[in-house]
Amino acid sequence: ENKMSFLPQKEGQHPSRCPDNSAFKQQKLPAWKPQLTIATVLSTFFLTGAFCLSVGICLILSANRVREVQIDYSDKCSDCSKLRENSSNWNKECHCSVNFTLKEDILGDVFMYYGLQNFYQNHRRYVISRSDAQLLGRNVNIEKSYCAPFTTYQNGTPMAPCGAIANSMFNDTIDLFYNLKSSVIQVPLLKTGNSWWTDKNVKFHNPKAYNLSSAFAGTARPPYWWKPVYLLDEEDERNNGYLNDDFIIWMRVSAFATFRNLYRRVHRIRQFAAGLPAGNYTFHISYNFPVTKFKGRKHVILSTVVWCGGSNPFLGIAYVVSGAAATLTGFVITAIHLKLRKKKTYFQK
Amino acid sequence: MALSVDSALYRWQRRGAESPSQTLSELTPLLPSVRDKVKLNLNKWRIVLPDNGRQWKDQKQVSTFYSGNKIKTTKYSWFTFLPQNLFEQFHRLGNVYFFFLAVLNWFPQVEVFHREITMLPLIVVLLVSMVKDAVEDYRKHRFDKTINFSKTRVYDKEEHAYVEKCWKDVRVGDFVQLQCNETIPADILLLYSSDQNGVCHLETANLDGETNLKQRQVVTGFSRQNTFFEPEFFQNTIICELPNNDLNKFKGYMEQPNNERIGFNIESLLLRGCTIRNTEVAVGIVIYAGHETKAMLNNSGPRYKRSKIERQMNMDIFLCVGLLFVMCLIGAVGHGIWTGNFSEHPPYDVPDKNGNFPSLVLAGFYMFLTMIILLQVLIPISLYVSIELVKLGQVFLIHNDIDLYDEEADLPIQCRALNIAEDLGQIQYIFSDKTGTLTENKMVFRRCTVDGIEFSHQENARRLETHRELDLDDEDFAKLQHFSLPPLNVERPGTYKQRTLRPLRRSQSARAHFQGHTRNRSLGRRDSNQSQVAFSTTLEKDVAPDSRLLRRVREAALHTENLSPFVHMKTSTALTDFFLALAICNTVLVSTATEPRQRVTVPPPIKPSGITLEKIHQMFQRLKLASLSQSFSSSQSSSDLGASFTAKNTEEHLAALDCCDNDNDCCDSGRGHELQGKGSTDIGSASLDEVFKSVTNSSLPTEFCYEAESPDEAALVYAAQAYSFTLVSRTPEQVTVRLPQGTLLTFDILYTLAFDSVRKRMSVVVRHPLTEEIVVYTKGADSVIMDLLEDSDKADISAEKRMKRIKEKTQKHLDYYARDGLRTLCIAKKVLNEDDFQKWANFRREAEAAIENRDELLMETAQHLETKLTLLGATGIEDRLQDGVPDTIEALREAGIQIWVLTGDKQETAVNIAYSCKLLKQRDTVFTINTENKETCESLLNLTLEEVRKNCEVEKPRRKFFGIIPTSFSTSEAPSPEFGLVVDGRTLNIIFQGGLEEKFLALTKHCRSVLCCRSTPLQKSMVVKLVRRQLKVMTLSIGDGANDVSMIQAADVGIGISGQEGMQAVMASDFAISRFKHLKKLLLVHGHWCYARLAKMVIYFFYKNVSYVNLLFWYQFFCGFSGSTMIDYWQMIFFNLFFTSIPPLLFGVLDKDVSAETLLGLPELYKIGQNSEIYKLSTFIITMLDAFYQSLICFFVPYLTYENSDIDVFSFGNPINTVSLLTILLHQALEMKTWTLFHVVAMIGSVVFYLVFSLIYNATCVLCNPPTNPYWIMEKQLSEPTFYLLCLITPVIALLPRFFIFALRGTVGASLILKAQQLDKRPKRQQDLEIQKLRSRKTTSGTPVASPTSNDDFDQNFSHLCVSPFLHPAAAAVSHGDTESQRLSTSEVNPLRKRTPEEGYFFFNRWAEEEPTTTDSSEGPVATPGQGGGKLSRDNANNFNHGSHRRSVSAVTL
After folding, report:
1. Which chain A residues are closer than 8 Å to B1302 by Cβ?
2. Is the alpha carbon torsion for B149, B155, B157, B161 positive or negative?
3. Does the keyword DNA-binding apply (chain A) (predicted)?
4. Please, how many CA atoms are within 13 Å of residue B1098, restricted to the half-sphere of its CB?
5. How far is Cα B284 from Cα A44, in angstroms, rounded to an integer?
6. In 3D, which of B370, B379, B324 has the Cα closest to residue B93?
7. Which of the four pLDDT bands, split at 50, 70 and 90, describes residue A309?
C-alpha cells in the first residue's frame, strides 16, 4: 500500500521515533507533593506563632534599653535661621546654644547625630548629582557626569566636589558641653571612624599629589561652601579633602526625607568613660545650614545602640503582632476543624 | 496569476515571483492560433498551450504568467527574514511598548535608567522570537523541499520522451506521465489512459478524504484510443477557467487546429495530491500548477492562533496599562503638589543643565513619563518571553509522551503549533470527522441473516477482536477473569502435516480469545505490535465464516452437486442466492494478488492440479479456522432464533428482547450445551472438511484483490468469498463466480442499476447461466427494500406466513445490527420472465435515450424493476471503530465536552457509527432534519426546540434544587443529555442561507450530540465557525483527510490524524496524532496540565511584577514623587531576569497538580480548564490585591524598621529587594504542587544566586554603574541582625493571608481538584477505589452530562430507538408521538431521578468516612442507600446493582 505517497517516502531504516521512556520525559520524576493537611497546617501556624512571639518580646525588651535624646534646635536658634533665610548673609557667622538635662546616665557608646527633617536627599535628580569617579580621586571630565548644573563655574573652573549632593552639604558644627557644677567641660567627641570603612578606604580617595591643596589645584569649591574641600578638616590630614568623614557621610544619601546622620561619637575617656553621666548639657551650634526654605527642621540626637539597632521598637512589635496573628489563626482553624468534624462532612482522614 | 484569484484565499504570497498580468492587452496578440476567433481575455480564461515545441513561442510567453509548480509555504526567505520579521514583531503591542520606553529613556528629563540598559529587554525579546520564527519557518521550508523535489515524469520536447523531473520544475503546459500509485504533482487534464475505456481511477483521499476510487475520463472525442498518446502531435489549445478553489467544478474546452471545440469538465481533471490507482499509465497536460492548483487553493494556510489564555491575558494587560496610567498619574500629580509646596526651590531640587526649573505642569508631565519608565515592569513583557519558553517546554513534553506514540506507524504526536498547547485544556466542543478518525475506514463483514436465521459470526467477531486485545493490561485481565468463559482449547492437535510458519492471528492463544469478548473495554491500551500492513490486509479480506452457516452452505453445495443443479431445495436456494447476490450485485473490480491493480477480465483457467505452496497454506488456514469455529458454536443445531440468540449472543439488548432475565444463567447454559456438543460435531465437521478439502483442492485460485467504489461492497465480496462464492472476474458484460463446488458460473450482466442516494439501493440484472432465468439481485438500505418486498398474495398461505415471519425476523435482526453500529444492507432477488424483462428493457432503453428529464425516466424504470422482491437476507458490516473510540468519547463527554460529528458520509452510516461509539445512546431521542425548504426547516427547528425545551423544564426544578447543595458539581450547566440531532448538508445549507443559525444553535445546545452528514468541507468549517463565533466557545476539530482541512483550520485547535489519508490534514493541524484515542490523554492530561500550569504561571507573573514594581511606587511617596529608585538597576533587571524567573518557568513546564492517572480516571477534572477556573478575572483581581498587599508589607515593614535612622537609599533598598525576593519565591513555593529535584534546586539556587550575585556585585562595583553605587551594601547588611530579622518576618506577614486561605481550603474545602490531589498520595489500589467512589457519587448526583454507562444500562428495557426522520410537518407529528413514548419511558425511571439529589448529598457526606461496602463490581456505581432514601432508594440500589451486574456480563460477552 502506498497511501502515503503524497509525501514521498524515504528509503532505508531510520531509528525509531519512539520517545525515550525516561522519568523526565514521561513526567514521572520522583516528587514530593506537599499536602496541606490539618496536622501540617496547625503545626505551621502554632510554631510560627510561638517563634515570632518570643523573638518579638526579645526585641522589644532590647529596644527598651536604648537611651535617646533628641533636640530640635530649629526653633531655638530662630535668630540664626532668620539670618540664614537671606542668602546674602552667607558669610556671617551665627551661633546659638541649646541646653538640656539628662535625668539619668546614658551608658555605653553614645552616638551624636544631626537630624534633618523634610530634606529630600532621595530626590531623583539629587541622588544622581554626583561623580563617584571624581570622589575616587580620578581626574575625570565632570562635564560628562551627572553633576550638572553643579559642574563648573562660568569661567570653566570645575567644582571639587561636583554635584548637588556635595554642594548642599550639612555644615553646622555642633559641640557638646557638660555643665558640671558651674564648670563647663567640653565632651570629647570623635570625628573620625564614623563612616563605613569601605567608604573611607575604597570609595573615596583624594587626588594623588604632593599635598592636598596642590591636589585640588585648578578646582573650586562648590557654590554653597565656605571653604574649599581641602580645608574641611585642617587638623587631621587623613580626615581632609574627599576623605573627610562628615563629607563621606553626607554623600551617602539618606533613604527618607527625615533622617539622621552620624556626626560624632562620644570619646569614652575621663568622666565619660562609661558614657554620658546625668546632668546638664549644652549644645553649642554654629548655625550655617538653612532649612526654612523648605520648611525643614534640624535636630541633634544623642543615642546608644543595641544589637538590633536603635530605639525603633517597630521590629519587635511586628514580630509580636504577627506571632499573635499566627497563633490566633491556628486557633481559628482548629475551631473550624472541630466544628466540621462534628458535622461529619469533613473529608480528611 | 495572483490577481485573478480571490485574494483572501491566496495566502501564499510569493513576493516578486511573478508580475501580475494586468498586461493582458500585450498578451492577446500572442495567441495566433486562437486570437482570430475570440478575443480571449486572460483575465477571464486560462489558455494552456502544450509544451511540445509546436507553439513553443507562445507557450513560453504565456506560461511565464502562470505559476510554476514549486510551492512555498514559508513566510520568509533568507533576505527578507530580518526586515520582515522585525516588521511583524512590531505588530505586537508589547514590543511597541518596549520600543517606546527605550526611546523615552533617551530624553534626559525623564531618564531613569541608562539608555542602553533599557534597550536590553527589547533586544532579548526580539531575538528570542526571531529565533523561534526562523526555526518554524525552516521546518516548513524543509517540508516544501521534500515535496518540491519529488520526482515525476514529464515529456521533454528535445528528447521526445518522458524524462524524470522534480515536481517544482513542472510547468503549465507540460505533459506528465503518471503511473499506477503515483501522486499527481499538479492539476492535470487527462488526455490518455492505458485503460481501454479511457478511464483513469483516482484516489482522492488526500483531497476530500474519500478512499473509494473515483473515475476520471479522458477528454472525449479528441483521443483515438488504443493508440499510445504522443504528446508531440498534440496541437490543441486548451481554454479553461481561471484557478479557483472549487474541487467539484471545472470547465473548459479544447480548440483543435481545425477550430473544432471539445468540451471537458471536472471529469477529466486529475487533481494535485490525488493518487492514480488501478490504471497503468495516464498522460495529461498540466493546467494549473503550484499554488494555483485546486488543492493548494483549498489550503488556506495556517492561521495565526492565539490561545484563550493569551487572549485573556491581553485583556488583563490592558487592565495593567490602566493601573500603570493611574499610578503614573498619581506620580505626576503628586510631584506637582509636592513641588508646589515650596515657595523657593530647595537645595535638593536640582535644576537642569542650564540651571532652569521646568514649570509645574511640565514637571508633572515629565514625571508622568518618568514613572512610566520606572514602573514599566508592571506590563509584564517578560511574560511573553516566558510564555513562549514554557510552551516550548510543554510541547516538548507532550511530544515525548510515550502514550501518544503509535508503534505501528512509528509516529509520536507532532506538535505543529507551539503556542496553543494550553488550549487543549479548555476545549468545550469537539468536531470530529467520522471516516478515518472515529473509524479505521475499514469495512469488515460482521454478521448476516439469511432466510430469517441469524448467523452471528462469532468467530469472525473474535478474530477481529484478537488483535486488539493482544496485550490487554494485566489489570483489566484480572477484572475479566471473573466473568469470562473458561478457556477453550482452540488449538486442535495438528491434523494437518503442512504447518506453516506464519502465525495465525485468529488463533493466537486462549487468552487472546476470551479477551476478545470484551470489545468495548479498550481502556488506554497500547496498540498491538503487529505491523499495520499485515493487519490491514487480512483484516478486511479474511472473513472467518460462521461455522453453522458454512456447514449449511457446504451441505447445500453437496446437495446441489449430488442432485441436479436444477433442483433447488428451499433453504439451499436462499443461501446460494444470498451469496451469489453478495458476489454479483456490485461494481467491484477484480485483480489478482500477484498482479495487483491489474484488472481481471477473463476468468482464469482452472488448474486442477499444481497447487502451489501458498495455496495449500491458504487452504490450511481456512480449514483451520473452520475447525476452530466449530469448537465454539457446534451446539448450534436448530434454526431457532431465540435459542441462537440467548445462547450465543449474549449481547444485552438481544438478551433483553428475548426475555432472558438472567444473562449469566443463559450464558452458562449455553456454554454447557456447547461443551456437550463439542465432541460429536468435531467429527462431523472434520468429515465435512475432508469433503470440502477435496472440492476446493481442485480449483484453488490465486488470491483475488477487490477494489470497490465503496469499501463495504468489497467487504461483501470478501464475505462471499469466505463461503467459497468467489468473484473471479468481472467485465461490464459478464461476471464469473466460482461456487463452493468449484464450478465456475458466468453470468451475463444485462443491466446494472447503479446505486443512488434517492433509491438507496442498487441492482444487477443477470441471466443465470444454468437456469437461463433472468434474475434481479438488489441490495440496499433496509428501509427501502423492506417496502419493496413481494406481497405474497398469489402464494399459498403457509408460504405467505413463512415469508412474513422471515421478514419480521430479518427486520428484528436488522434493528439489532443497527443498534450495534453495523451498516446494514438488505439483499433481495426477483426472478423475471423473459417477456416482462423485454418490456422493461425497452422502457429502459427509451429512458436512456431520452434527452429531456432523462434522469427521472431512468429513476422511474429502476423503480419499476425493483419491486416485488423476495428477501434473501441482510448483512451487517462494521466500519470498524478505532481502538478505544467509545471509551475516549465517553471520557471526553464526562469531561463536559460536546462532541459533534461532521462527515461527508451517508446519514445511516453516520448514525450507526454514532451509536456504536456511544455518541448516541439507544434511549436518546434522535431528531433528524432533512429538508431543502426554508420554511419547513424553520418550523421543524421550532417544533423540535419546543419539544426539547419542554423536556428541559421538567428537569430544571431539579437542578435548581440541586444547586442549593454546596458541591462543586452544581457549577456546570450542561444541557440535557437526552437528545441527538442529525442534519444533512442540504439542511445545513438552508440553515446558513435562511438565517436560522440561532435556532439551530439553540437546539444543538440541548442536544447531547449533533451529527452533520453529507456535509462538504466548506460546510464543516462553516459549522465550526458558527459555533465558535456565536457560542463563544473553545472548539477543537479533528480529522484525517484533506476534506477536514478547512474545519481543522477553523477551530481553535486543529488536530490531524496522521497515517491513513495523506498529509494534508496533518499539515493544516496544530497537533497531529495517529489515533483518535490519543485525544483522551492529550486533552484530559496534557491539556489540563498545560492549562493549569500556564494559567498559574501567567497569574504568578502578573503578581510578581505588580508586587515588585509597587515597591518602587510606594517609595515615590517618600521621595517627593521624583522617580527615585532605592534598588540598583542591575539588581532590578536581574531580579526579573534571573533571580525569580527559573522557578516559575520550571513550574510552568513541570508542575503537576494532579497525576495523569487520576486525571484520566476523573475526566470531570477537565472542567476546571473548561470553565477557566484558574485564570479568570476574579482570580486576576484577587491576585492583584494580594500583590498590592504583599508589596505594601515588603515595603513598609523595612520602612518602619528603618524610619528615622541613618539608613541610606540603597541600604534601604537592599533588604526590600531581598525580602520581596523571598516573598515572591515562597509564594511560588506555596503554589507548587510537585517538588522534584529540579524545583528544589531552582528554588534554592535562585536565592543563592541572588546572594552570591549581590555579594560579588556589591563588592567589586565601585564605579560600574554611576551614578548609583551600591558598593559593599550587601556585605554590610549581612553583618547586621536587623537584616536577618527583617528577612524572617516580612515574608511571614506577607504570605500569612494566602497561606491561611490555602490552609482553610486544604483542610476543610471539598473541591474536586483537592480531593484528586489527596488521591494522588494514596497507594495505587486505594486510589482506584476512591476514583470509583468519586465517579459513582457523581453519577448519582445526577450531573447532566456525565451520566456514565450505568445510567442507561439499568433501564435498558425501556430503550427506544426514536429515529424520526420527518420530512414534512405531518411526519413531525409522528415523531412527537415518539418522544411522547420516550417521555413515558423516562417517567418510569423518574422516581430514581427525583431521589438523586438527596442521594448525592448523602454520598457527599459519607464519602470520606466509609470504605467501599460494595466491592463486587468495580464498574458499576457503588450504591449506598442513604438514611433518607428509604425503601425506594434501596430498590434503586438493587436496580443499580442489577444493572451493573448485567453490564459487566455484557462487557464480557460482547
Report:
1. 36
2. positive
3. no
4. 29
5. 81
6. B379
7. confident
Question: Which residues does residue B777 pair with via DSSP β-bridges, in sequence order?
Answer: B764, B829
Residue B1376 pLDDT grade (very low, low, confident, very high; cuts 50, 70, 90): very low
Average pLDDT, chain A: 87
- The Cα B1149–Cα A282 span in angstroms is 68
- Stated as kind and residue range, the H or E segment containing A263 is strand A259-266
Question: Does the pLDDT at position B1107 exceed 90?
Answer: yes
C-alpha torsion A327→A330→A336→A338, nearest 10: -110
Helix (H) or strand (E) holding B263: strand B261-265
Backbone angles phi, psi at B743, to 5 degrees: -75, 150
Roughly what angle, to the nearest 10 degrees, separates helices B934-964 and B997-1005? 40
> What is the C-alpha to C-alpha distance for residues A84 and A74, in angstroms, rounded to an integer?
12
Going by the DSSP 8-state scheme, the letter that residue B1060 receives in this structure is T
Grid cell for residue A22: 525516561
Helix (H) or strand (E) holding B690: helix B663-698
User: Are A227 and A219 within 8 A, CB to CB?
Assistant: no
CA distance B1248 to chain A (A): 22
Of residues B605 and B1307, more confidence is placed in B1307
**CB proximity list for A114: less than 8 A, separation 6 or greater:** A170, A172, A174, A260, A261, A263, A298, A299, A300, A301
The DSSP code sequence of B1268-1286 is: ---TTHHHHHHT-HHHHHH
What is the number of other CB atoms lying within 10 angstroms of the CB of residue B26?
A: 11
- The residues of B annotated with a catalytic role in the active site are 433
Mutation for testing the A interface, residue in B139, B275, B1082, B1124 having most A CBs under 10 Å: B1124
Regarding predicted confidence, which is higher, B65 or B566? Answer: B65
Please list, in sequence order, all residues whose beta carbon lies within 8 angstroms of the beta carbon of residue B802, skipping any fewer than 6 positions away: none
Check pLDDT > 70 for residue B624. Answer: no
Residue with cell 451498516: B823
B1409–A261 CB contact, under 8 Å? no
Show residues of chain A in contact with B1203, CB under 8 Å: 256, 258, 312, 314
User: pLDDT-derived band of residue A304, with 50, 70 and 90 as boundaries?
Assistant: very high
Residues B170, B176, B178: CA angle, nearest 5 degrees: 125
DSSP secondary structure, B545-609, as one string: PPHHHHHHHHHHHHHHHHS-TT---HHHHHHHHHHHHHHHSS--EEEESSSTT-B--SPPPP-SS
Is the previous residue joined to B604 through a cis bond, with omega within 30 degrees of 0? no
Q: Judge whether A35 and B1318 are in contact, CB under 8 Å.
A: yes
Residue in chain B closest to A154 (alpha carbons) equals B354
B1449 compared with B1430, residue with greater pLDDT? B1430
Break chain B down into helix, strand, coil percent, rounded to 5: 55, 15, 35
Tell me the three cell numbers of residue B186: 499538479
Residues of chain A contacting residue B204, judged by C-beta atoms under 8 Å apart? none
> For residue B961, what are the contacts with CB-CB under 8 A and spacing of at least 6?
B1397
What mean pLDDT is predicted for residues B580-608? 62
Give residue B3's pLDDT: 33
The 3 state secondary structure assigned to B1197-1261 is: HHHHHHCCCCCEHHHHHHHHHHHHHHHHHHHHHHHCCCECHHHHHHHHHHHHHHHHHHHHHHHHC
Please tell me whether residue B1380 adopts helix, strand or coil conformation: helix
- What DSSP character marks residue B198? S
Pairing assessment for the beta strands B925-929 and B898-902 based on DSSP bridges: unpaired
Express each pLDDT in B514-529 by its tens digit.
333 333 333 333 333 3
Instruction: Average the pLDDT over B788-797 and give the result.
Output: 67
Closest chain A CA to residue B180: A2
Domain parsing of chain A, residue ranges? 50-66+305-330, 77-99+122-254+281-296
Report which of B423, B421, B424, B426 is spatially closest to residue B1149, judged by C-alpha positions. B421
